[in-house]
Design goal:
The protein is of the alpha/beta class and 434 residues long. Helix content is 45%, strand content 15%. The chain contains 17 helices and 13 strands. Strands 1-4-5-13 form a four-stranded mixed sheet, sandwiched between helices. Helix 9 crosses helix 10 and helix 12 crosses helix 13. It binds uracil (URA). Uracil binds next to helix 9.
Amino acid sequence: MRIYDIIEKKRFGNALTEEEIRFFVNGYAAGEIYDYQISALLMAICINGMNDSETAVLTDAMAKSGDMLDLSRFGANTVDKHSTGGVGDKTTLIVAPIAASLGCNVVKLSGRGLGHTGGTIDKLESIPGFRTELDNAEFMAIAEKCGLSVCGAGANIAPADKKLYALRDVTATVESIPLIVSSIMSKKLAGGAKNIVLDVKTGSGAFMKTLESSRELANRMVAIGKLSNKNISAVITNMDKPLGYCVGNALEVAEAVSLLRNNQSDGDLYNICVTLSSEMVSLSKNIPIDEAVLLVKDAIESGKAYECFKSWISLQGGDVSVFDDLDSFVNAKYISCIKAEKDCYITSVNASEVGVSAMMLGAGRASKLDSIDYSAGIVLHRRVGDRVKKGDIIAELRSSSVSDHTAAKNRCLGAITFSQEKPSDELLIYDIIR
Ligand code: URA
């Protein structure tokens, strides 16, 4: 088999065979095929696409290029949840303990944030003592005790994806649905869960900006999941504005704790979390979705989910006493405010711009090696659709390392639009694909 022939075949728009796909993935992962040849192939895939069978083989080959987690000891109710990335997206911290408190097993690999979107591992590391690097034995043992453990995805999870993604990034081939699907799904297959719920974000703060492209991505990921013998669903959710009130690591943990303490029974964060965790519970326990919704709401109201959350955090070394005083936990050295300049409505809050502002305060990384200020971030006191009066605080900017908030404040202010007209309500959940 020759890589030249595979490139030419795809250039003419023909479907590749399983052997050809495994040949190029394994050959590239092993360093036996040159970057320039894989670049040409990626471009041919980008232009001519791949059908679902090709994409399923590509996904499987990328997953098997590294470690595959064996969760067989947990039976069939293992469940993973994946978000395509958003601003203020702390849902994993909430839905994982909800699902675990209802008897599902959430043994989850997560990532760090980069750019304007946050990562679950960074949020968890804002809790003093919390360990995100666990060996396999401890990772499994913690899940056996409380139904839940979360660990940073190591270098050997889908290493072929890491190499291919780095090449896509510099060859203008990131935006290809089969390449995105195989990249995301290979990591989910390597994670080993039988049931998978995807949160596909759409809008200004999302990777996919339009509903049409998000729907296409969601449909293809669900198709590939099913071809890979998984129970899977995808929820398409709004990421035009930040999710919830807080953006920034410790701030988001505090918001998640507050929700788990049953302090909210409405709002975008609560509704997305109920939807996602109900999907997780329905798939893994094989029960109707209406029944799962009732169980999920009860897990929050009864405090069962919060108890599970605290056990999990303690088992991973986190100091849960910090949750006794959330104000101290989120304490920041420098705090400044954006105030309304007149009486008006807030008509939009651009999620990615708020994410960039939070990053400028130290909450995120512009490049992989940057360090993070866990106390940094933005608290939105007012949301889209709210009426504000002149002088009302709209947002609070917080940090402990960056002392001058001027640039972040201007960026954040630029993210917010105002009007005398009340904006119409936007959908939060566009669709669920099963
Ligand atoms: N996220 C991934 O993990 N891979 C992609 O290709 C795009 C987004």
